[in-house]
Amino acid sequence: MTVVPKFLLLACSLGLSAVVVPASGFDDVARSTLVIVQQDETVPPAPLVSDEAEPSPSDVVVPPAPPTLPPAPPTLPPSTVPTEPLVAPPSAPSISEPPVSSVEAMLKDTFAKDSFDTCDRCSMRGCCCLGEPWKLPQPCMLERMGISVGGWLQHGITFNAQNPPSRFNGPVATNDRDSDYQMNQLWLYLVRPADTGGCGWAWGGRVDMLYGTDWRFGVNHGLEDRINGLNNQTYGMVIPQAYLEVAYNDLSVKLGHVAAILDYEMIPAPPNPFYSHSYSYGYTVPQLVTGVLADWKMTDQWSVQAGVHRGWMMFEDYNDDWDIMAGIKWAGCDGNTSVAFALSSGRQSLMPVIEANDDNRFVYSLVVQQKLTERLRYVLVHNLGYETGFPVGPEQEIDAEWYGLNQYLLYQINPCLAANLRAEWMRDDDGVRIAGPGNIEGISAWNGAGYAGNFYNLTAGLNWRPHANLLFRPEIRYDWYNGEDSPIPGRTRPFGNFNRDDQLTLGVDMVITY
Q1: Residues near 260 by Cβ (< 8 Å), separated by ≥ 6?
Q2: What is the DSSP letter of 438?
Q3: Does residue 122 surpass a pLDDT of 50?
């Protein structure tokens, strides 16, 4: 009979242990296997049981002595054997954040890093870390209802090289005061997004409230004039939006006071590339309307909007007619190109004394955005409008037209710094669109009007974000006018003391979001 040596049993034991070792967690498993082997070495092998007769001593074959094994390391105490599972359990799923508001979504797009790394990557352009954005503490009651609260503070100052005696920077909006501190927007919003996730029903709504000098550019007849009164005050309150929203699958409908869908710039300060506004946004399109607006996302690339409203900046219209507003948007599959076309058309009445006029105002806006490189984006804005039967005096009407081209180059140097350029040409063919809010009795603002000609502006500026909640926008802007004199006595030209064709301004604002 062949006797199995003890060292062969030990070798088999080692081989068996190697088979059961998984690939993951190799070091820990090796340690635990070593302990098991060492503990097995201290146990004598079980005696072999055989049915054959016990051989005589002379028949016993003495095997050669096994090779000398190195001394085993000291046995580890049992407490060092790993007790954790060899395969780590999956991490707990993160709790999704509540849906953000439309403004927050625009802010996310504004803070987009593209291929940047905010904190871990340095280059010749410098290092930058925006940090985590801070938000207002959310009331528990509102959170349970799915409502979030936020806002921002925008304030700044502008210097005019002409030092106009009126202290107004001509038709520049909304940083219209020379050498005066302006708190443009102290903004608060409450929003419950109507988010269906593409399937089923949902409801929501939004309320925005603004206090600051911008109120003079956002007066809706029947709303802000009732809230503030018209007493030539510089500061006042505006309600830019207050609507209910119902959504089903990829269709949403807003009912109430909403922002219009034309042009590229917008009333909320943070997403805009500059402190000052373009002529096209300030004077040639409706900004706020009251009515119904539907938005249908047909595919990932196409969406359409359609609705009716009371008129340009009308909460209570002077007539009973409804305007239509509609648009279509397309976005490329690669996210580098987008095109938006929108229009508004309907009968307008300027004031009760001439509410019987039959003027119909039509305007369209085309916005094309193209990402040229990872850091450079180009935006083109083209607006065109006309109005039939525009009243210019007792029983006197004209047909008016306006159009223009506005272009932006937006270069993201790093996540904290961007350099922007705007070049604009705007033609007020009949002198009916470039008219300051000061022409409304009781509003303290520039009151120029009647300039039939070409307006130009060239603006260069920076967007510097030292933190996710903080934005500085210094800018230099040059405006000039080429056209006819205004027929209004004492308001011959649009700049200076109504006696100049151009002006140079330097401005800077700071936006703190919360």
Answers
A1: 285, 286, 287, 288, 289, 309, 325, 342, 344
A2: G
A3: no
d(CA 175, CA 181): 10
pLDDT of 168 > 70? The answer is: yes
Q: What is the rounded average pLDDT for all residues in the chain?
A: 82
Distance CA 325, CA 286 (A): 10
- pTM attached to this predicted model: 0.77
Q: Is the bond leading into 174 cis (omega within 30 degrees of zero)?
A: yes
**Short-list 134, 138, 184, CA closest to 157:** 184
CA-CA-CA-CA torsion sign (426, 461, 465, 217): negative
Residues in the chain: 514
Half-sphere exposure at residue 475, Cβ-oriented, CA atoms within 13 angstroms: 31
User: How buried is residue 286: exposed, middle or buried, by Cβ count under 10 Å (0-12/13-18/19+)?
Assistant: buried
**CA-based nearest residue to 264, from 428, 379, 421:** 379
Do residues 207 and 228 lie in contact, with contact meaning Cβ atoms separated by under 8 Å?
no
Provide the pLDDT for residue 70: 52
Strand partners, 21: none
